[in-house]
Amino acid sequence: MRLGILSDIHANYEALSAVVEAYRHEAIDKYYCLGDTVGYGGSPNECSDVIRDLVEATILGNHDAAVAGRMDYSYYYEAARHALDLHAQLLTPTNLAWLKGLPYQLRLEDLNVLLCHGSPVRLEEFEYIFAPEQARECLPIYDELGHLTLIGHSHLCKVFALSPTSVEELPPIDFELRPDRKYIVSVGSVGQPRDYDNRASYTVYDSDRKRFEFKRVEYDIEAAADKVLKAKLERNFAHRLFIGV
Which helix (H) or strand (E) holds 148? Predict the structure, then answer.
């Protein structure tokens, strides 16, 4: 089975549209979203509509949780709070109800794949995994991890190979899973990449070949940025799209 896994769209309809079009050439059987469909960008309803129609299941992200009233985000910086407040006002009742019902994790038992937004250790805390020391916090729950655990949240493409006692960071390039290791993979961001590559990030997992692939696609950044500015959101949310940070 070929899975299309994407994350952190952040209301960037132009990036999401480019990714959906690129996926048409990948012979995908099922799609999964790892969360944060909303936040930061100018198209929260449009992106929610696309994801609801496209994917088999979506995981709750921290921005989704904030907009849906499922977490306290008073400690977020002002510009991020403003975007979340605005999206909560803009979302249709159907999309808001959808966010309110999203799960913190999903286990694909037949494929031995675990889906989360952030670290699987404390799901409701939405903790990051972008360095080996953070991945090591998962060793006490090694037996609960999937052969492949897929996360978003950091907006970075990362690969960590785990044994019961060790963690090794691997380069974020296409690879085949070894049977004697478990893997935590951060799939990057569709709508707000932060690795200085401004192209939208998306991924493919072939469960038969045990092969994981990272993909990037260009999109109309100017149009996405213009929507951010027209929504009177923080100007930096628009500017950072051009530099991928």
Answer: strand 148-151
